[in-house]
């Protein structure tokens, strides 16, 4: 079997697990967080959180699938580890930046939205 | 034979980097909970939630960076165990220093949050006490 296809399978499983896990965690704890910032309006908080979650899934899954097209040919297991780690790292770094940005953005501007 | 040494290097580097991140963030956020409870004035649920959010961010940032610097360049690698040890020590040492820097950054954020919450508490206390004294 082609090494590239095995790599794609591993990459997709890893990123899917990662994205879903982080999304769930942020949604769960973010709910408490937003609820504290906008006290007394449960519906609004839930809506904001849902929108954030959907945007997050769209950006990350879209990016993960798009980057599949640009892989170089893989000849050995070392190259496989290298390329998987490199791509996963890019996604994780994007996630981290988005996460911190979201935290900052929510605390700063949530009062103005309402 | 050349590639297999690089492979051994990856197998050594990955567990060390992941375990290092795990232990650092465990220590930081076990103690960070106390800070958070202090910042949010004893409201435990929001304190724990914020702590978890910061933890997720910390893990993402550090694991992402660890994976990003994993790659060993084949052109600079002259196929000896000595060279492998040198490269690995450079990578792991650099990563540990990066982790330390991130730790202090997070600690700074905690202290800043504590200071801000103390200030706002003071202002609200003054606001409360002024009308009664006037």
From TrEMBL, chain B:
<keyword id="KW-1133">Transmembrane helix</keyword>
<keyword id="KW-0812">Transmembrane</keyword>
<protein>
    <recommendedName>
        <fullName>Integral membrane protein</fullName>
    </recommendedName>
</protein>
<feature type="transmembrane region" description="Helical">
    <location>
        <begin position="6"/>
        <end position="24"/>
    </location>
</feature>
<feature type="transmembrane region" description="Helical">
    <location>
        <begin position="92"/>
        <end position="111"/>
    </location>
</feature>
<keyword id="KW-0472">Membrane</keyword>
<feature type="transmembrane region" description="Helical">
    <location>
        <begin position="53"/>
        <end position="72"/>
    </location>
</feature>
């Amino acid at each position: 079997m082609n090494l590239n296809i095995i790599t794609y399978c591993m990459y997709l499983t890893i990123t899917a697990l990662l994205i879903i896990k982080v999304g769930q965690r942020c949604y769960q704890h973010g709910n408490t967080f937003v609820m504290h910032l906008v006290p007394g309006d449960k519906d609004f908080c839930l809506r904001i959180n849902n929108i954030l979650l959907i945007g997050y899934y769209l950006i990350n899954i879209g990016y993960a699938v798009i980057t599949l097209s640009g892989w170089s040919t893989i000849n050995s297991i070392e190259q496989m580890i290298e390329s998987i780690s490199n791509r996963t790292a890019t996604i994780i770094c994007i996630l981290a930046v988005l996460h911190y940005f979201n935290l900052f953005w929510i605390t700063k501007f949530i009062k103005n939205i309402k | 034979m050349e590639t297999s040494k690089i492979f051994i290097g990856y197998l050594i580097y990955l567990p060390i980097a992941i375990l290092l991140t795990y232990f650092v963030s465990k220590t930081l956020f076990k103690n960070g909970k106390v800070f958070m409870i202090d910042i949010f004035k004893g409201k435990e649920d929001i304190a724990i939630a914020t702590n978890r959010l910061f933890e997720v961010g910390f893990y993402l940032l550090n694991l992402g960076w660890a994976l990003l610097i994993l790659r060993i360049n084949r052109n600079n690698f002259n196929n000896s165990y000595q060279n492998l040890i040198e490269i690995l020590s450079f990578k792991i040492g650099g990563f540990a220093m990066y982790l330390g820097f991130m730790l202090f950054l997070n600690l700074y954020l905690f202290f800043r949050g504590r200071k801000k919450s103390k200030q706002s508490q003071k202002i609200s206390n003054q606001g409360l006490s002024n009308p009664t004294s006037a």
